Amino acid sequence: MKKNKMLYRIVAAVLACAVVALALVTYQSRSSSNAPVAEGAVTATGSAKGMEGDVVVEVTADATTIYSITVKEQNETQGIGSVVCEQLPDTMVAANSYNVDGIAGATVTSDALKEAVKAALTSAGLDASAFAVAQTSDAAVEKTAESLDCDVVIVGAGGAGLTAAAQAAENGAKVIVVEKMPIVGGNSLKATGGMNAADTKYQEALGITDSGVDEFIEDTMNGGHQINDRSLVTVMAEESSDAVDWLDAIGAPLPKVAATGGTTHKYLHEPEDGSAVGYLVEKLNAQAEKLGVQIMLNTEATEILTENGAAVGIKAESKEHNYTIHAKSVILATGGFGANFDLMASFNPALANAVTTNHAGATGDGILMAEAIGADTVDMDQIQLHPTVYQETGLLVSESVRSMGGILVNAEGKRFCNDLATRDAVSNAELEQPGAYAYIIFDQRIVDDLKSCQKYIKNGLTVSADNYEDLAKAMGLEGDAIQNFVDTMDTWNAAVAAGEDKEFGRSNGMDADLSTAPYYAIKIAPGIHHTMGGLKINTDAEVLDTQGNVIPGLYAAGETTGGVHGGNRIGGNAVCDFVVFGRIAGNNASAYAAN
Known about the structure:
Blueprint: E1 27-28, E2 42-50, E3 53-61, E4 66-73, H1 81-95, H2 107-123, E5 144-155, H3 159-170, E6 175-178, E7 195-196, H4 201-205, H5 213-223, H6 230-249, E8 256-258, E9 268-270, H7 280-290, E10 294-296, E11 300-307, E12 310-317, E13 321-332, H8 341-347, H9 365-371, E14 377-378, E15 383-390, E16 395-396, H10 400-403, E17 407-409, H11 423-431, E18 438-443, H12 444-449, H13 451-458, E19 463-465, H14 468-474, H15 480-498, E20 519-531, E21 534-536, E22 542-544, E23 550-556, E24 561-562, H16 573-594
Parallel strand pairs: 5-6, 5-13, 6-10, 13-23, 21-24
Antiparallel strand pairs: 1-4, 2-3, 3-4, 7-9, 8-9, 11-12, 12-13, 14-21, 15-16, 15-20, 17-18, 18-20, 19-20, 22-23
Helix pairs in contact: 1-2, 3-7, 3-16, 5-6, 6-16, 14-15
């Protein structure tokens, strides 16, 4: 790290929980009244489509009472939709209604669970409308004032916040994290690709020698159209290998190495088993909790407290309490504003009705709170579209699909760009195609190596066939477009064999062709993905005011900051950003608190 770097101990983490992906998990709800099931009650099942497949429930009820709700099958995102399936059945039983408040940030799954319960009641021959009385949480609650003290308070429990918390606690600081959502993880929980890093032990073991720090810096600067803050990019690149080692030490290794869009070399580090890199959230959360970090969910920070110009804590509120949290330093890690359409539209009105991949809590709170005490911002108008978003649900189709050899074709069955160019370039090219959409094409080889593809198939996003012609028909192509597609696939496979893409100059993700049947396609289009702008920080993760001066005691990391990514973020750099600067913020905030 840079100045103020403290010696920290390497903690070998033995974690008690593991991410359970693509599993059929059962949760048994409990009746809050423990009322015995009346004679004549019936049990029936119902289902509804969730974010990532059907949610299937079993309900026991009679004409007046819901006795139990059991989720029999669900495939929702671990830590987001899975929380709904764990918590909402109890709420419904206690309210004797399926029409209860959903869980913020997991609206699709919440609605699916409600519809599934309603379907089960109907299937049981009961009048579902008898259980449709809305149970809301709008009743006024008299909040009590609470005062807490700590060394470091962190706002936001996404990747950056949890990294900073774990690092600060590792250094011996007393840490409190406040998170307005009912779950930890933020956008980091939805991350599907990997983490870029240079000069790592994993690259060395694979004989990768051309992906050094200098190359990483230049790829990031070029990808960001040279408006990035080079000093921040340099720190990110220089500290990336150490960050990978630190993740390994807490039980979160990323040993697979691949290329990603917009880079000239292989920097992308991924989990060994092909899982999404979002699995880091559970590892980071476990590490923070192991080190005694207090994480307060459903608690929204509202104000940064200052004394003599220095940050000395925050105000926050939950349903029951108004908190004043006194701290010796403050870290903002609230993420970007990709779900704040009013704020985005103030910079680009065309984004007001766009699809977003962001979770509901990505509303820029930390940026706005810091601006209120004089903090400066940078690049706020730089808002990234991701080219491969499933428009029906806003689900991002991982860039790893293309990194492993997938390609994009348009409605005419033709490739139209370098599929692994920068995200803005590919998105712009898509928007110029007929209908402003495209298809991402992959084969069974990629499916076998990438768990996200297995999820896409299971959840019905794909069409498939055993040959190119039939896949074109399954995609809905007609006439000349069918033969165009067959020719496109043959041309691509020949380009991979020759090691040269003469059509569009692609050089990455060409280690294997697309010749392993069956073949798959997903219809995609661009969607809002990342806000590159945010709070202006220096290389010590200190927040700067509008005069360029450090605001003492105030630090920030992750997507709530600007300057690292410039005009376009390279895939894999968000994770590197939040781990590297999360650790820097944690180290420096804890050192400041100790002085």
